[in-house]
Design goal:
The chain is α/β, with parallel strands linked by helices. Helix content is 52%, strand content 7%. It has helices at 11-23, 67-76, 88-93, 112-118, 130-137, 141-156, 158-172, 189-200, 205-213, 220-232, 237-247, 251-265, 268-274, 280-290; strands at 38-39, 56-59, 79-84, 103-106, 178-182.
Length: 292
């Protein structure tokens, strides 16, 4: 049975996120078996315009999609392309369901060679009891560093930049219908993809963060439960932050990645053009297609 995962840092933030989720229900897709399903439609963007609905979709993996989910994505959204940002190992453990005639494109956002070299790859045997493994990892210096560097390492990685560049290029080259992108939980690698698309469409940093935080309620329960276990073993904030980063959402770390783009790459506009290779014409195409 699939569990409902979710969370943020503290009761007040949890309540804010859940209230936001209720208020912005237009962003939550009516899907049954797909976790963390959202629509960028309705978010404000360039020139006071809004993003058109049912065209730019972000979710968790599609392995548990129901027949109704598949039909809705195909018939209502006319889904054309699915971008899978997971590793080969993740896909083998939980392959996506096919959705109509949509093309499934594998663009792994994490460099597998870099993971092996720096020791950040999770051992295969850990997936048989991932929660126990994560509780153990919380008390290691390596995991604490990985948790803090998760988003910054992705925006700095040339490998990852190439993958997101291809992702944006193929969206530009999709004139009709919807596109959907996802990783496993639909929050981290998927969240960065959403940040890049929102930025190309002229959305503010506040809107990017609002979209990112909408993942929080889906992972509240597991973060709370595992954090309680970590604290019972003597862990403090540094240790529970590992749980937050890997199993929930960590706005502090996500903001740090956006700061790096500003400080090291001259801002998001420059990053889109120089690292992700979007031209002025590409951005104009995206805005004409996706903004109402």
């Amino acid at each position: 049975m699939q569990k409902k995962w979710i969370s943020l840092q503290g009761a007040e933030q949890d309540l804010q996120a859940e209230c936001r989720m209720q208020r912005d229900s237009e962003h939550i897709l009516p899907l049954e078996g797909i976790w963390n399903p959202r629509d960028l439609g309705g978010f404000p963007a360039a020139g006071g315009r809004k993003i058109r609905p049912h065209l730019l979709l972000r979710t968790g993996h599609l392995g548990n999609a129901t027949d109704r989910d598949v039909a809705w994505l195909s018939d209502v959204c006319n889904l054309q392309k699915i971008f899978d940002l997971r590793t080969v190992e993740e896909i083998e453990r939980q392959p996506d369901r096919a959705v109509g005639q949509a093309l499934n494109i594998h663009l792994p956002a994490i460099d597998p060679d870099a993971e092996i070299q720096n020791g950040s790859a999770i051992p295969q045997e850990a997936f048989s009891d991932l929660e126990t493994h994560l509780v153990y990892l919380c008390f290691t210096d390596g995991a604490k560093l990985m948790a803090k560097d998760m988003y910054p390492s992705l925006v700095r990685s040339e490998y990852t930049q190439v993958q997101y560049s291809a992702f944006l290029r193929m969206i530009v080259e999709t004139p009709d219908g919807a596109v959907l992108w996802h990783c496993s939980q639909g929050k981290d690698r998927t969240g960065l993809g959403a940040a890049f698309i929102l930025s190309a469409l002229g959305a503010s940093r506040e809107t990017i963060m609002e979209d990112y935080l909408l993942s929080a309620p889906w992972y509240k329960d597991i973060v709370s439960r595992l954090s309680d276990i970590v604290r019972s073993k003597g862990g403090g904030k540094d240790e529970t932050d590992v749980i937050l980063s890997f199993m929930g959402v960590n706005p502090e770390n996500f903001s740090a990645a956006l700061d790096i783009i500003d400080d090291e790459y001259g801002g998001m506009d420059s990053y889109l053009r120089e690292q992700l290779l979007l031209s002025d014409e590409d951005i104009a195409t995206l805005r004409e297609r996706y903004l109402a």
